[in-house]
Specification:
- The protein has 353 residues and is an alpha/beta fold.
- It has one domain (8-338): Aldolase class I (TIM Barrel, Alpha-Beta Barrel), CATH 3.20.20.
- Helix content is 30%, strand content 17%.
- The chain has eleven helices and 14 strands.
- It has helices at residues 37-45, 75-90, 148-164, 179-184, 199-202, 204-217, 240-251, 274-281, 294-302, 313-317, 321-327, and strands spanning 8-10, 13-15, 19-21, 51-58, 95-100, 117-118, 127-130, 133-136, 141-142, 169-174, 222-226, 258-262, 286-289, 308-311.
- The protein has an eight-stranded parallel beta barrel with strand order 3-4-5-10-11-12-13-14, surrounded by four helices. Strands 1-2 form a two-stranded antiparallel ribbon. A two-stranded parallel sheet has the order 6-9.
- The radius of gyration is 19 Å and the shape is globular.
Length: 353
């Protein structure tokens, strides 16, 4: 695993290995979307990752999709996150915060009755979890053009707070059917204005967010995650390969720390080779994610197909994943029953070697 365990310069950071911890929603935050000591312990256990990317973190109040997801929209949350960054840095780790707006995936039942907004008035199919049990996803209101600048600013403010809290940078969440993705993909964006229609228009919101976040904390501390194929949250695009090529090429001008690309669909519905297209068009550090074994990751890096790989459930169940890869040791199996349950079980109790 010479390539996988070799250093890599990613923006302002020099990573000791190319095994990133992918962002994983774990719903362990306290009331008021407050990060806590248990979360600090969890992330610190995984400090040997080349880079940790946190779970999605709310940039605005009343935009929760999970209930116990953390926020970064208040001074109190910012102060509470310092516990996590200090714990990770004390173990020699590096950590980015993933910043996020759920858009139409938020439910009023989780958000004090607040209305749900999106690129267009189209609901996510099916039901979601609320404090009153499962409820149908609600029809969102289409955002007005004059409302968009305040949301863009919220991302920039969140990035500044993240840095103040001690994070090494931020990852903008443009994947998995949340607000930015709802603008990007034509299955969710039916707008007739400057933010809809052409690929250029659909990317406008993302590019405005990236401009603002890069101006706030510097582009070398900003990453971006995209999921061209993932159908989670009722997402689809008519041309995922063309979409990937356009974005990968355009993103070069931002000089980001990295582009983090989910290569597959959670449900296996949409299939295409987006990684090859991204590698051809993107001029920066490219990170692959979804279902890589250590062996496949090593080969992909050796062949120049990507620069690093983000492991999700691998790091979830194996706090010492790089050491296990180095020694060729077996991996713990993740316990899916405890992915989103409160408390330490299935969170901070996975054994190390």
């Amino acid at each position: 695993m010479n390539k996988l365990l070799s250093p890599l310069q990613v923006g302002a950071l020099n990573l000791p290995n190319r095994m990133l911890m992918a962002p994983l929603t774990r719903t362990r935050a306290d009331a008021g979307h407050m990060p806590n000591a248990l979360m600090a312990e969890y992330y610190a256990q995984r400090a040997s990752a080349g880079l940790i990317v946190t779970e999605c973190t709310m940039v605005l109040p009343d935009t929760s999709a999970f209930g116990a997801d953390p926020g970064i929209y208040s001074q109190a949350q910012m102060e509470a996150w310092k516990q996590t960054t200090a714990a990770v840095h004390a173990k020699g780790g590096r950590i980015f915060m993933q910043i996020w707006h759920a858009g139409r995936a938020a439910h009023p039942g989780l958000n004090n009755g607040a209305e749900t907004v999106s690129s267009s008035a189209l609901a996510v199919e099916g039901e979601t979890h609320t404090p009153e049990g499962k409820k149908p996803n609600v029809l969102p209101r289409e955002l007005r053009v004059d409302e968009i600048p305040a949301i863009v600013q919220a991302y920039a403010d969140a990035a500044k707070r993240a840095r103040e809290a001690g994070f090494d940078g931020v990852e903008v969440h443009g994947a998995n059917g949340y607000l930015i993705d709802q603008f990007l993909r034509d299955g969710a964006n039916k707008r007739q204005d400057a933010y809809g229609g052409s690929m250029e228009n659909r990317a406008r919101f993302l590019f405005e967010v990236l401009d603002a976040v890069c101006a706030a904390i510097g582009p070398d501390r900003v990453g971006l995650r995209l999921s061209p194929l993932n159908s989670y949250n009722s997402m689809i695009d008519s041309d995922p390969l063309g979409w990937t090529a356009y974005l990968a090429e355009q993103l070069g001008r931002f000089q980001l720390a990295y582009l983090h690309l989910m290569r597959a669909d959670f449900f296996g519905v949409q299939k295409a080779d987006v990684m090859t297209v991204a590698r051809e068009k993107y001029q920066g550090v490219l990170i692959g994610n979804m279902g890589y074994s250590a062996e496949e990751a090593e080969q992909a890096i050796a062949e120049g197909k990507l620069d690093a790989v983000a492991f999700g459930t691998g790091f979830l169940a194996n706090p010492d994943l790089p050491e296990r890869v180095k020694r060729g040791a077996p991996w713990n199996k993740p316990d899916q029953a405890t992915f989103y349950t409160p408390g330490a079980k299935g969170y901070t109790d996975y054994p190390t070697l």
